[in-house]
Amino acid sequence: MQQTHQGTRVPAVWRPRGRRRIAMVSLCVAVAAVAGAFAGVSTAATPDVRLAKGSYVPGEVLVRFRDGASASGVAAAHASAAATVLRSFTSVSNLQLVRLSGLSVGGALAKYRQRSDVLYAEPNQIYRIDDVELTPNDPFYASMYNLNNTGQTGGTPDADIDALEAWNVTTGSNAVYVGVLDTGVDWDHPDLVNNTKPNAAECNGQAGQDDDANGYVDDCHGIDPLNGDTNPMDDNGHGTHTSGTIGAIGNNNTGVTGINWNVQIIACKTHDPSGNGDAAALVECLQYMEIMKAQGKNVVATNNSYGGCPEACGFSQALEDAIASNMDEGILFVASAGNDAANNDTTLKYPADYFVPNVIAVAATDDDDLLASFSNFGTNTVSVGAPGVSVRSTVWNNSYTYLSGTSMAGPHVAGIAGLLAAQDPSRTWSAIRNLILAGGDPKASLTTKTITGRRVNANGSLTCARRKVSGPLRPLPTVDGQDPIIVAALNINCARGARAPTVTITPGNTVIQLKDDGRGADLAGRDGIFSGRWNLLPCDPGAYTLTYSNGKQDTTTVTC
Q1: Is 138 tagged catalytic?
Q2: What is the pTM (predicted TM-score) of this model?
Q3: Which spans in 220-301 are helix H?
Q4: Which of 5, 219, 275, 452 is deepest in the core (most CB within 10 A)?
């Protein structure tokens, strides 16, 4: 799976550490959809699984077995595909990464999917950081419109996240942790060095030993599952840039200021110097965040400024499962919406489009509070907007530059999550998510482009009071009516869910009471997302209008 980051590419001067498996692919390559039930969990036989070269790691497959699968059955499944286990995961039970010795990836998938004890099998897809190539601005230009816009860039004053006002409430806390899944982080950068040591036991321990017994040796700054070590040093620049927006040290007379002056960034290297990464590395990084949280570290969010190719080829069941596991552990998943100027409601973009309640998908805005020309959007799928054009931040080699893209927008949201956790460490993931969404400023340019119609505002989130926000989430504009259809809507008042809405569907005048109880169609209880099932059986194709009791309206076309 491939992605492009949102910033001007920084020339690679860091010497790569020689990863063996990521195929080099060009930016913005359209990858053909996978034949068969690629995105589902069907175990039906798939005799001809066709995959687009360059969209997955050659010779590797992610396979998840059903609960209760016997050891002999697992061994037989691997033997049938001539596979050996490279890695087993704990956050997603029964999930393994395997290496193939004879069969092609498509052939191995067909073998695994024929077995009743296999829940799903999928390629180890390649992900790519999201970027738009722009010429950097003057590196000595100190004003940062995204934090405090006075019109210094020719934009509209106050088209910013009100960081100065937010800092009167809190400047962050080193007891708050934010994960960055990216090209790594230059943890020696003078504007990051004090905020990139999340594992004190290893930083202060004995070299070559697992001082905190978490399964990783010398993981002072984080880990690098892409290369199988614990040195997540950036070799591209992208991850250092996103980290600087989240947590460049503030008030130190050096360089730029992060949204959090104080925070601990957990670096997890998922992408190589050319911007390619894979699903297995992403799953392990999300698992690592849970390990850190189990050690008592308040990991509140991960920033994920990458995306897959258009359509279903971007979907990974393993990654979706890992994101859901993070939700269970109270960790938000912030995702860049993508830089294709496309509608994510109709052209699915992952990971931004995973329908898991802890996912916040972020579009990019400019210094006039307009949707960036390159930014993806979606009234059902993209949560909110954030500054993402010519954002200045840290890059490797102790430098700074301006980059643009939804990759730069996402870290604003992850940074605000850090501020909210610093203000009140007891806040749940759903309270933090809801405050980010409700605390934003309504913008006309985002009204029909995002779920909330808002651009984030740090101070608005920290001081939110009596601000109701709602928006339909599901169904998408086109749905298959041969199965029950999920109907879901966001309905919040600052941190909490608002009154449970009903929805009337016409033609037919079907009335559904949506619930927020974590049962049935509802994925998480009391989180502000209300859900229900619409049974249109027998299937009746056509256009339908959904009218919610809070006044919102949506449409969908049912196919059969």
Answers
A1: no
A2: 0.88
A3: 238-247, 279-294
A4: 5
Here the tokens at position 344 are 């994510």
Would the pLDDT of 90 be above 90? Answer: yes
User: Would residue 412 show up in a list of annotated catalytic residues for this protein?
Assistant: no
Compute and round to an integer the Cα radius of gyration of the chain: 22
Which entry of 383, 393, 404, 407 is annotated as an active-site residue? 407
pLDDT tens-digit readout, 421-449: 999 999 999 999 999 999 999 999 999 99
238 counts as catalytic: yes
Of 34, 21, 25, nearest in space to 106 by CA = 34
Residues 358-412: tens digit of each pLDDT? 999 999 999 999 999 999 999 999 999 999 999 999 999 999 999 999 999 999 9
* Candidates 162, 182, 186, 321; catalytic one: 182
Residue 154 CB coordination number (10 Å): 8
Catalytically annotated residue among 78, 221, 238, 241: 238
Nearest to 516 by CA among 534, 494, 495, 491: 491
Collapse the DSSP code of 87 into the 3-class scheme (helix H, G, I; strand E, B; otherwise coil) and give the result.
Answer: strand
| The pair of three-digit structure tokens given for residue 151, joined into one six-digit string | 């019109």
Residue corresponding to tokens 């050319």: 274
**SS3 at position 537:** coil
8-state DSSP, 450: S
Residue pair 16/183 in contact (Cβ under 8 Å)? The answer is: no
Please report the domains of the chain, with CATH numbers, ordered by start residue. 163-199+212-437+448-467 (3.40.50.200), 470-559 (2.60.40.1930)
